[in-house]
Amino acid sequence: ETYIPTGPKNPSNVKSETDYILPTYSRYFSTGLYVCARIIRYPYSVSALASYHYNFWGSKLMYVGDTEETRFKKGNRLMAGGRFNIHLNEWIAFGNELYYFHYEKGKEKIDLVVTTDPAWDIDYVPRLVFQVRRFRISELVQIPLFGKNGGADPAYSLLVQYTF
Predict the structure, then answer these.
(1) How far apart are CA 60 and CA 69, in angstroms?
(2) Cα(99)–Cα(88) distance, rounded to whole angstroms?
(3) Beta 119-132 vs 113-116: how paired, if at all?
(4) What is the distance of C-alpha 23 from the center of its chain?
(5) Confidence band for 136, pLDDT divided at 50, 70 and 90
(6) N- to C-terminal Cα distance for the chain?
(7) For residue 49, how many C-alpha atoms fall within 13 Å in the half-sphere facing its CB?
(8) Which of 25, 121, 136, 146 could make an S-S bridge to 161, C-beta 3.0–4.6 Å?
(9) Distance (Å, rounded) from C-alpha 107 to C-alpha 62?
(10) Using CA atoms, how far apart are residues 140 and 133, in angstroms rounded to an integer?
(11) pLDDT band at 8 (very low <50, low <70, confident <90, very high)
């Protein structure tokens, strides 16, 4: 997987600290390797997966009102996990996923170098997938269970795919 930043990375049309247009994209170049092994015994499937993302240096305005961009490097990410899926019928599947994430130290260069602490977390992800002909709709909630220096808020995601 490779992430390439698109769109503006800094706020625009800044009138005050509370009146501005947010950037559409604030990421940085990142590349990585994703490996997955799956065993299917209908109606069940089991997967083991791992990935590693290397993040490159980036720069952006960290706060509204800044005049110079700050150079930063987010910590690289290691992920390992597993999935257990059951097909409820021919077009609905329910998945249970468990992931371990480890984020390495990150750095920001202003006048001095600020280092962010490494972080880790373990997340549980229940997923519901609907497939109708060539359309696939997947809903999931990512729920942090344990961790250090990471977020504690659940995240909801809706994915719509079309198979050619």
Answers:
(1) 5
(2) 23
(3) unpaired
(4) 18
(5) very high
(6) 21
(7) 16
(8) 136
(9) 13
(10) 21
(11) confident
Which amino acid makes up residue 85? Answer: N
pTM, rounded to two decimals: 0.75
Strand order in the sheet with 155-162: 2-3, 30-41, 44-55, 77-87, 92-103, 119-132, 135-148, 155-162
| DSSP track, 74-133 | PPPEEEEEEEEEEESSSSEEEEEEEEEEEE--EEEESSSEEEEPPEEEEEEEEEEEEEET
- CA separation for the pair 55, 71 (Å, rounded): 13
DSSP label at residue 12? B
The amino acid at 127:
R
pLDDT at residue 110, rounded to an integer: 67
Q: In what order do the strands lie in the sheet with 70-73?
A: 58-60, 70-73, 106-109, 113-116
* pLDDT tens readout for residues 32-86: 999 999 999 999 999 999 999 999 988 888 777 777 888 888 889 999 999 999 9
Q: What is the pLDDT of residue 151?
A: 86
Prior bond to 8 cis, omega within 30? Answer: no
Whether residue 111 is predicted with pLDDT greater than 70 in this model: the reply is no
